[in-house]
Amino acid sequence: MDRRTRHKHQRPRRMTEQHILTVLAKASAFDNRRPDAAAAAAWLEAIGDLPVEDALEAVVEHYATATDYLRPGHIRAIVERTRADRLRGIDQVLPPADPDAVDYGPQLKKLLARAADDRSVATAIEAPRRRATAPTAEYVAARGPGYLARRLALAVPCPLEGCGRETGRPCRVVGAGRREVPTGYHPARLEAAKEAMEATA
Fold first, then answer.
1. CB within 8 Å of 98: residues ≥ 6 apart
2. pLDDT tens digits for 126-148?
3. The 3-state secondary structure of 25-87, one letter per residue
4. For a Cys staple, 189 with which of 67, 109, 172, 185, CB 3.0–4.6 Å?
5. What is the pLDDT of residues 84-101, one digit of tens each?
């Protein structure tokens, strides 16, 4: 695969003016704005570093939950929150190598970037997980109290009605919007994970 072909299939790391016009066109469907070249240039300067797919999704999320006239700051806040939310589930995954390995840092950085970009923790860690080693005691301790239970619980979807969070995503308090359960999972989810583990043992 030559350089041009490889670049074609990569997610653009920075939006172009055409991407921004697409985002503004999406917004105009909700608020009847009339974007022009000056607006596109200003928005490109403000949020051009964000992935266009995330920005488009942020437009929809904003107008699905708010009545404020959409501005670049709204887009950035939603995208940053969304990307952070995708990364929370990464704790359930074993690192691709021991933390003391020479290439651990670069591998972990690449894994996190893929998880944030690709929206799927499972997709991002599929290859590294196959060659994962058991985490060291130091690694487990560094992840904080309850790490092993949290990792186990997040390996299955939450069965609790009203939550139903998918694999790798922390549970949310039922009826409390985006507020997460302090432990990251409902007790029923941990039990479901234990049952699933026993069934495959």
1. 104, 133, 136, 139
2. 444 444 455 666 666 666 677 77
3. HHHHHHHCCCCCHHHHHHHHHHHCCCCHHHHHHHHHHHHHHCCCCCCHHHHHHHHHHHHHHHH
4. 185
5. 877 775 554 545 445 555
